[in-house]
Amino acid sequence: MKQTTKTIGRGIEMPKNECKDKKCPFHGNLKIRGRNFEGTVISKDVHNSATVEWVRRRFIRKYERYEKRRSRVRVHNPPCINAQIGDTVQIYECRPLSKTKNKVIVKVLGEDIQYKQKQEIMKEEQEAAEKQRMKKDKKETKEAAEE
Ligand SMILES: [Zn+2]
Question: What residues does 99 pair with on adjacent strands?
Fold first, then answer.
């Protein structure tokens, strides 16, 4: 039977957009293999790369409990998928694409709301700290002027 549409297997849908990236698993000649992971995009750059992070649990035998550990990997972000910071994505292992990349984003699963909220809180805290510092500076200059 002739296949009419190209798929990359494993039940992964084709993205709506098209691209001309050679390292794209959908439109280039990259094949996915091995394990897959789900994580959040924490940074992204113009060279079709992104950093994905996820939390895993590691069992500590001595305490019979789990500890939280974070995995952070550099991944290829094909132009047709173009995942944004804060997106939850599915990534697959593939051949080495560069010195640090051997994984590729195959699907955007949605937005990581927790991550975005965390970022917003951090931003607010930073701004508050900045304001306080400015206030302090003003006070000090005032005191210096009075002397
Ligand atoms: Zn593509």
Answer: none
Return the closest-CA partner of residue 75 out of 112, 114, 38: 38
Please tell me the distance between residue 137's alpha carbon and the centre of ligand 1 in angstroms: 52
pLDDT in tens, 78-121: 999 999 999 999 999 999 999 999 999 999 998 888 888 888 89
How many residues make up the chain in this entry?
Answer: 147
Phi, psi for 132 (deg, rounded to 5)? -60, -40
Q: Which of 55, 54, 47, 26 is nearest to 101 (CA)?
A: 47
What's the CA-to-centroid distance between 119 and ligand 1, angstroms? Answer: 29
CA of residue 129 relative to chain centroid, distance: 27
| Cα–ligand 1 centroid distance for 115 (angstroms) | 27
Q: Which residue has the tokens 């975005």?
A: 116
Residue 104: predicted pLDDT? 96
Task: Could you please state the CATH topology (level 3) that the domain comprising 14-111 is classified under.
Answer: OB fold (Dihydrolipoamide Acetyltransferase, E2P) (2.40.50)
pTM to 2 decimal places? 0.77
CA pair distance 93, 101, nearest whole angstrom? 9
